Amino acid sequence: MNKQLSNFMGFVRNHGVVGLAVGLAIGTQVGKVVDDIVKGLIDPVVGFIIGSQDGLREASFTVTAGDRAMTIGWGLVLSSLITLLAVAAVIYYVVMGLKLDKLDKKDDKKDK
């Protein structure tokens, strides 16, 4: 049993499972914060610009053909794209600002 536990702990250390779990937890929270920023700040500003009281997520248009109608919610799609870009920008600037991109890289000079 001790050998299995030792092998498991070696796996956790070698593959950075703890760091991955921490990164996932932080990334999830960053995603929520960015989504709230988009809902609370960006959506109202864009809603004000386009003249929609409901904000960007509710923006849509309806196409009718005879007795049939189709509503396309373009605002929700645009809002999701803005959220994606905002999350990507936050992650980029955090990683580059804290120089986390160089954290796992080995120094080739020390290996020689």
Which helices and strands occur, and which strands form pairs?
Blueprint: H1 2-14, H2 17-50, E1 61-65, E2 68-72, H3 74-97, H4 108-111
Antiparallel strand pairs: 1-2
Characterization of the model:
By secondary structure, the protein is mainly alpha-helical. The protein has a domain at 27-103. The protein contains 4 helices and 2 strands. The protein starts with a helix and ends with a helix.
Q: Can I get a quick summary?
A:
With 112 residues, the protein is mainly alpha-helical. The chain has four helices and two strands, in the order H-H-E-E-H-H. Strand 1 (61-65) and strand 2 (68-72) form a beta hairpin.
Biggest β-sheet: strands ordered side by side in the sheet:
1-2
Mean pLDDT metric = 80
Structural class: mainly alpha
In total, how many beta strands? 2
- Radius of gyration from the alpha-carbon trace, in angstroms: 23 Å
- Number of H- or I-type helical stretches: 4
Distance between the termini: 39 Å
Beta-strand proportion? 5-15%
* H-E order: HHEEHH
The shape, in one word, is: elongated
> Quick one: biggest sheet?
2 strands, antiparallel
Helix content: 55-70%
Poorly predicted tracts of residues:
none
Main attributes of the structure:
single chain; 112 residues; mainly alpha; two-stranded antiparallel sheet; 67% helix
